[in-house]
Structures are given as structure tokens and as C-alpha cells.
Amino acid sequence: MNSPELHPFAQEVPPPESVTMTLDEFLASDLEGYEYVKGELVPMPPTSLEHGEIGICVVRYLDRHVHENQLGRVYTSDTGFQVGERVLMPDVAFVSTARLPENRKKASPVPPDLAVEVVSPTDVHSRVSEKVRAYLEAGTLMVWVLDPVLETVTVYRADEPFNLLMHGDTLTGENVVEGFSCDVAKLFE
């Protein structure tokens, strides 16, 4: 049996999971669907419908406020951000107008002002905690972690205790997304 011929521009490349590369090599690549952590590619598998619905609820409320008040830009889960020596793709992110990179054709060279992570059924607590720490150490001002099972939002800021918000509470953008507020319950409808 003859093997199919490769397109003249195609290259045989090992599966991305087995590739190690530098941060610069990753940033210069066109790989999609991977985060870059400590020299290795971490595949980002498709999420559940529930995960997507919660993410879009955050986008719906956050983007409307950001757009109407011309505060910056809101990004979805397929957008990469350089977070120290990593490239991460938060489920939702906000970057203020003052910090928007000029070249937006590649992953952002700056971490987001706000990173939002929605906990997946396959997430390990330590991995989510590690991401939160990485965001904050790289300069992200605030991280929201949404837990679909408990229907809670945990708000993290550097050098401050975390704040756990429940169903009857209001999530605010504090001084990061000024003027933003939303009932926690609305994010899980």
C-alpha cells in the first residue's frame, strides 16, 4: 500500500505533546489549542457545554460593560497571554486600554488585567491554584475562579486574602474593571 504524499509545504512534526521548546519558539509558532508551561505544551481539550455556557455568561455581562465604558477589550478562551514564562489561555480575560499591545496578531506579550477561569470536571485543584498564582505573580491584578458545582466565584488579588462569593452575592470589577457588577447567580443560569 502506498503512503499518501505530503503536501509540498507540509512537514512531518511529532505530536505537539511530545515537543519541548522555548517560550520564544512557542510565541513564534502557529500552534493552537495549547498552553505553554515550563517548556512543554499542555493540550487544551474541548470543554463541556456547561463550561462554555458559564464562560459566555461572563463574556456577555463583562463585555457589555467594558464596551459601553470604553475600558479596554474582553477576550475569549482561545486567546493566549504571556504570563511570566508561560502562555496561558484563560476562559475569559480583560485588558485595559492603557495596556493593549500594539501588535494583536499574536499572543499577548502582557498578562491580562483580569483572568477568569471556569473550573472543569477534569481540572485538578492544584493545577487551577498554580494558574492563579502564575497570573498574580506575572502582574494580573485580579483572577476570578468560577466553580460550576458549588456555583461560587473566588476572587484572588496579589497580597490580599481571597474572597469567596456565593449565589446571593454580587461580583464587582473593583478598581480593575471599574463600575462592573453582576449577581453571582446570573453567571450560572
Produce the secondary structure layout.
Elements: H1 23-28, E1 34-37, E2 40-43, H2 49-68, E3 72-76, E4 81-83, E5 86-88, E6 92-96, E7 114-118, H3 125-138, E8 142-147, E9 152-156, E10 163-165, E11 170-172, E12 181-183
Parallel strand pairs: 7-8
Antiparallel strand pairs: 1-2, 1-5, 3-6, 4-5, 6-7, 8-9, 9-10, 11-12
Short description, anyone?
The protein has 3 helices and 12 strands. The protein has 189 residues and is an alpha+beta fold.
Describe the structure.
The protein has helices spanning 23-28, 49-68, 125-138, and strands spanning 34-37, 40-43, 72-76, 81-83, 86-88, 92-96, 114-118, 142-147, 152-156, 163-165, 170-172, 181-183. It has 189 residues and is of the alpha+beta class. The protein has one domain: tt1808, chain A. The strands form three sheets. It has a six-stranded mixed beta sheet with strand order 3-6-7-8-9-10, sandwiched between helices. The protein has a four-stranded antiparallel beta sheet with strand order 2-1-5-4. Helix 3 (125-138) links the parallel strand 7 (114-118) and strand 8 (142-147). The chain is globular, with a radius of gyration of 18 Å.
Keywords:
single chain, 12 strands, 189 residues, alpha+beta, 6-stranded mixed β-sheet
Average pLDDT for all residues: 85
Going by CATH, the architecture would be: Alpha-Beta Complex
Count of separate structural domains: 1
Q: What fraction of residues sit in β-strands?
A: 25-35%
CATH fourth-tier homologous superfamily: tt1808, chain A
State the helix count: 3
Q: The CATH topology is what? A: tt1808, chain A
